[in-house]
UniProtKB/TrEMBL annotation:
The lineage of its organism: Bacteria, Pseudomonadati, Pseudomonadota, Alphaproteobacteria, Rhodospirillales. Residues 34-53 bind DNA. Gene3D superfamilies: Tetracycline Repressor, domain 2. Transmembrane segments: none annotated. This is AcrR family transcriptional regulator.
């Protein structure tokens, strides 16, 4: 039998651990997820977890990064399907808020993530999110769709509002009702960026 390259074996081991950790964190939560249980589910040892991620917190960080990347890809698809850049921008923001209703994202990213990993605004993916949003705002301003605002400052403000709203939704007694209120309020805030007299399109 041909032996797999070491790099491939490492990638497979990491993927197994992330998959097992993601399942455990998503079903029972970070606090109740036992390392021996999810390493056994992956057919690996606790030593493999320590080697690749340091500890359970390191594994959570990897799981959050994976989910965050998937969220980003989904949001780009939402934006790409829109018929105008402005509608794509609004749809992407709305979709992000609505993702806070999904059980896995709610529990892992918006509840356990902040309590274990700290302020989400400092997580690595946030910098790329702000950069991408700033680029979008810059193009919308250049096309005369929105008022001339500093793109980075506006991206940081909009991103911060989205993150705070998502955390609010995820931790609310009635997430669906909270999401409806958040989306309606957010739409009104975004319309404030439009050039005066311009209809959303």
């Amino acid at each position: 039998m041909v032996r797999k390259p070491r790099s491939e074996m490492i990638a497979e081991t990491r993927a197994k651990l992330v998959r097992a950790g993601r399942h455990a964190f998503g079903t029972v939560g970070y606090a109740d997820a036992a390392m021996d249980d999810f390493t056994a589910a992956a057919g690996l040892t606790r030593g493999a977890l320590y080697h690749h991620f340091g500890d359970k917190k390191g594994l959570l960080q990897a799981v959050v990064a994976e989910i965050d990347a998937e969220m980003g890809a989904r949001l780009h698809q939402v934006s790409d399907r829109a018929d105008t850049p402005w509608r794509g921008f609004v749809a992407e923001c709305t979709a992000y808020l609505e993702m806070a209703l999904e059980p896995e994202i709610q529990r892992i990213v918006l509840r356990d993530g902040p309590s274990v990993l700290g302020d989400p605004s400092t997580w690595p993916g946030q910098s790329e999110c702000i950069r991408s949003m700033a680029d979008t705002l810059r193009r919308l301003a250049a096309d005369g769709v929105i008022v001339a605002v500093d793109p980075e400052a506006t991206a940081r403000l909009v991103n911060g509002a989205m993150l705070h709203a998502a955390l609010w939704i995820a931790n609310a007694p009635d997430p669906e009702a909270t999401a409806r209120k958040a989306v309606a309020a957010f739409d009104a805030l975004l319309e404030g960026l439009l050039v005066a007299g311009r209809r959303p399109e």
